[in-house]
Specification:
This protein is α/β, with parallel strands linked by helices. The chain is built from six helices and seven strands, in the order βαβαββαββαβαα. Helix content is 33%, strand content 26%. Strands 1, 2, 3, 4, 5, 6 and 7 form a seven-stranded mixed sheet that branches. It starts with a strand and ends in a 6-residue tail after the last helix.
C-alpha cells in the first residue's frame, strides 16, 4: 500500500517515521485559504482536506495523509508569522496566557476521506521582550503557527499543556493512528 504525506514539515515527517518506514513526501502547494467565519476546528479540517484532495489527484491509489495546524487566542487565528515583527507581535500576545492549538488531519484513499481535528490547551509563562527577541533571532519561529515550536527552544516558555503533545508539534498521533486503522493501515 502506497502512503503519501502531503506535507513538507520535517516535524510531521519525523513523527510519522516512528510508525511507518515506507512513505513518500509530496507536499500540497495550493493556497491555504481558510473558510470565512468558521470555528478553528472547522478551519483546520477544511485546510487538511484541501491538501489531501490536491495530493490525492497526483496519487490516486495511495493513502494520503494531510494536516494543518493553527494557534487560536481569543477567537483570533494565528498562522505562521510573515516576518520578525509579526512573530514578535504574536509571541508578545501569547506571553503569560493560555491559547489553543488545533490540528486538522485528513486521510484519503480514492473517494474515501476521513477528517478530524484535535485541540490542545497551551499555557505560556510570561516572557520578556529580550527573551522573545532572542527566540526570534534563532530563526525557529518563522515557519510555525503561532510563531513557536514547543518541541524546540520555545519549550522553555510552556508551563503546561492539556491535551495531546503531538498535536502541538503538528500531527496528533493518536487521532491519526485511529484514522489510518479505519483505512486499513496497521501501525503496530
Amino acid at each position: 500500500m502506497n502512503i503519501v504525506l502531503a506535507s513538507a514539515s520535517p516535524r510531521r515527517r519525523e513523527l510519522l517515521s516512528h510508525f511507518l518506514t515506507d512513505f513518500v513526501i509530496d507536499p500540497a502547494a495550493g493556497p491555504e485559504t481558510p473558510p470565512d467565519h468558521a470555528a478553528p476546528a472547522d478551519v483546520v479540517r477544511a485546510l487538511a482536506r484541501a491538501k489531501a484532495d490536491e495530493v490525492a489527484a497526483r496519487h490516486p491509489d495511495a493513502v494520503v495523509i494531510a494536516a494543518d495546524t493553527i494557534v487560536e487566542l481569543d477567537g483570533t487565528i494565528l498562522g505562521k508569522p510573515s516576518n520578525e515583527d509579526d512573530a514578535f507581535r504574536m509571541l508578545r500576545t501569547l506571553s503569560g496566557r493560555e491559547h489553543r492549538v488545533y490540528t486538522g488531519v485528513a486521510v484519503r484513499q480514492g473517494d474515501r476521506v476521513l477528517c478530524g481535528a484535535e485541540r490542545t490547551r497551551v499555557f505560556f509563562r510570561a516572557m520578556t521582550d529580550r527573551e522573545i527577541r532572542a527566540y526570534i533571532a534563532s530563526g525557529e519561529p518563522m515557519d510555525k503557527a503561532g510563531a513557536y515550536g514547543y518541541q524546540g527552544l520555545a519549550g522553555v516558555f510552556v508551563e503546561r499543556i492539556e491535551g495531546d503533545y503531538f498535536n502541538v508539534v503538528g500531527l496528533p498521533l493518536c487521532r491519526l493512528g485511529r484514522m489510518l486503522e479505519d483505512m486499513g493501515v496497521t501501525l503496530l
